[in-house]
Amino acid sequence: MTLAQLKEAEDEFDDEDMRAIETYREKRLQEWKALKKKQKFGELREISGNQYVNEVTNADKDVWVIIHLYRASIPTCLLVNQHLSLLARKFPETKFVKAIVNSCIQHYHDNCLPTIFVYKNGQIEGKFIGIVECGGINLKLEELEWKLASVGAIQTDLEENPQKGIVDVMVSSIRNTSIYDDTNHSNSDDDETE
Fold it and tell me: Are 185 and 158 in contact (CB under 8 A)?
């Protein structure tokens, strides 16, 4: 096929084609705007105690807010901040903020850190206080994601609790443990009758 034949074979855009392109463009623009409106956060932001009420308690209606109260000198707090930063990008429809604990609550004890509060419509919907409730010193991203999803703050694609096997082993070992060790236990009534 020659260049001249190729030019003849080309369709020229008519008004109908231009309308179809414009309609498609408008549709995509509306989809993009709707997505942008829904995904208005996308980062872990630092706030001060003065901003707490405005940013957390008085957040927009039906917006989930996750706040991490932390102290930079506590390694688990830094780990939680790293995980929350990644989760904020993954779940941009949820508001993620952090605050140095003393700027919000004076004399808050370090044993209670890290502390994560989950708010919706000005009400606390979930709280994780201390290293154990937050997931321990070896907290994995998926474990924190599961915890936040369990209170409804995010819609995870995880199908089961990443710590399920660990929890089941711990619970079953507690259930199977008696306050008496059967090998060393002697019943005082039996001893008296012999």
Answer: no
